[in-house]
Amino acid sequence: MSLQNILQSIMERLQGSASVKMVFGEPIDTKEKTIIPVAKVAYGFGAGSGGNKKMESKESMGGGGGGGIAIRPKGILEITKEDTRFISFDQTRNLVIVMIMGLLLGILISRRGSKR
Predict the structure, then answer these.
(1) Could you tell me if residue 112 is inside a domain?
(2) Interval 41-61: pLDDT, tens
(3) Rounded-to-integer distance, Cα 73 and Cα 24, Å
(4) Is 93 part of any domain?
(5) What is the reported pTM?
(6) DSSP strand pairing (61-80 vs 28-29)
């Protein structure tokens, strides 16, 4: 199998398996609003081939490849008659990180104060 065929095979498999709908499902419609999930999809792949230069038969050739997909939820689009807005999931994560850092800082300050 040539390097080009290996890469084509990998890309076809990755394209067939990555879908926002696969992770989140269909958009949700209610009488008042529609909610559409939004995700970041990233592909990565690699392939290679080689052979023994001393031997000229095709049996001395080899090749391989692999790939992967990363799908990360980013938020939702909320569509109403009056407005459309994007609600980010990253803001919630950042808020949790800041709260944890504040808690740890508070613990450090209280320990330092109790040693005196």
Answers:
(1) no
(2) 777 777 777 777 665 655 667
(3) 8
(4) no
(5) 0.50
(6) unpaired
The token duo for 33 is 């609003």
Number of separate domains in the chain: 1
For residue 4, what pLDDT band results from cuts at 50, 70 and 90?
confident
Q: Is residue 17 part of a domain?
A: yes
> Residue 20 in contact with residue 39, Cβ under 8 Å?
yes
Q: What is the DSSP string of the chain?
A: --HHHHHHHHHHHHHHH--HHHHH-SPEE-SSEEEEEEEEEEEEEEEEEEE-TT--SGGGEEEEEEEEEEEEEEEEEEEESS-EEEEEHHHHHHHHHHHHHHHHHHHHHHHHHHH-
